[in-house]
Amino acid sequence: MQVRDVMTSHVESCTNQDTLQDVANKMQSLNVGAIPVVENGQVVGMVTDRDLAVRGVASGNTSNTVSQVMSNKIVTVNADASLEEASALMSQHQIRRLPVVENGQIVGMLSLGDLAVREQADQSAGSALSQISENQTK
């Protein structure tokens, strides 16, 4: 089974010039905790609810733009990759969400939840989650 078979294909994004308030509002309305930062169709970063809270609000930077709080070392996965490859990337990089790309352009998002909803992927998702959680508790 490939990533494209289980990914979320309708992905909302933001730009690195969006305000933290705009991104927080978008997260709330979409009920998501992470939004990819996209420029010209390419993923250049990721902003999470934790980024907004810790790098934004807690640091007193609420009037800043996404570029000041986003993570810019982004790991992506190709839509044609296997679920095992995606799970291995998530484990290796300690991440719970992967932007999915084709020809460098974002086409979806893959989360541990997406892996878990597929019966065939339960083992991959469980393995990735246990490795991610194990390393975060050390």
UniProtKB/TrEMBL annotation:
SUPFAM superfamilies in alphabetical order: CBS-domain pair (SSF54631)
Coiled-coil annotated spans: none
Domain of life of the source: Bacteria
Alphabetical UniProt keywords: CBS domain
UniProt cross-references to InterPro entries, sorted A to Z: CBS_dom, CBS_dom_sf, Diverse_CBS-Domain
Domain CBS: 7-63, 70-126
Pfam families the record matches: CBS
Name this protein carries in UniProt: CBS domain-containing protein
